[in-house]
Amino acid sequence: MYDWQTKFSKFKAVPNLKKFHLFEFSSDKPGIVTCQEHSNAAPVTFTIVGSEYSNTSLPPVLPALGLSDKRQSYLYEKIRQFVPEDKRDLICPLPARMVEADHEQQQVDQEESEEQQVDVDEQQQQQNEESVELQSSKAGKLCDFCCLLDYFQMCLL
Asked: What pLDDT digit, counting tens, does each position of 43-88 carry?
């Protein structure tokens, strides 16, 4: 889509444009339009741009805005069922806000999972420390072999 508003911003408006039905442009008279109310009416000439204007290039391209969230949701929820299955993701994809929400939820779930793993690791570390302390207190009562055996069993848990 081109930005025609910017391209034609230097053009002057034709007064009472809606009353005219015939318009004539000529390369012999650039920037001038001849208008008539009907085929038998007297022609009226207007200068809509000065003769110094000779820009023949296309105007700048406007970025596509895409569909609104409301329209995306409507297509996804109401129309998608009628679209051939192999074209659904192209014509009626999951709305962008739902994709973002799903991605955010996955991040939250991942963070919670990591926090739970840290908690489990901390609990295991604490149990190991308590077991080592218990082994130390039993060391006087058990032989060296038994203490070593208990220590290896604790490490395997």
From this structure: 999 999 887 677 778 888 988 888 888 888 899 999 989 999 999 9
Contact 33, 23 (CB under 8 A): yes
Please give the structure tokens belonging to residue 128: 């190991």
CB neighbour class for 154 (10 Å; exposed up to 12, middle 13-18, buried from 19): middle
- 95 CB-contact burial (10 Å; exposed 0-12 / middle 13-18 / buried 19+): buried
Cα–Cα separations (whole angstroms), residue 115 to 37, 102, 110, 125: 78, 20, 9, 15
Per-residue model confidence as pLDDT tens digits over 89-98: 888 888 876 6
* Sole residue written with tokens 């806000």: 97
Q: Read off the tokens for 82.
A: 């009628």
3-state secondary structure of 45: strand
In this structure, are strands 32-36 and 22-25 parallel, antiparallel, or unpaired?
antiparallel
- CB-CB contact of 94 with 76 (8 Å): yes
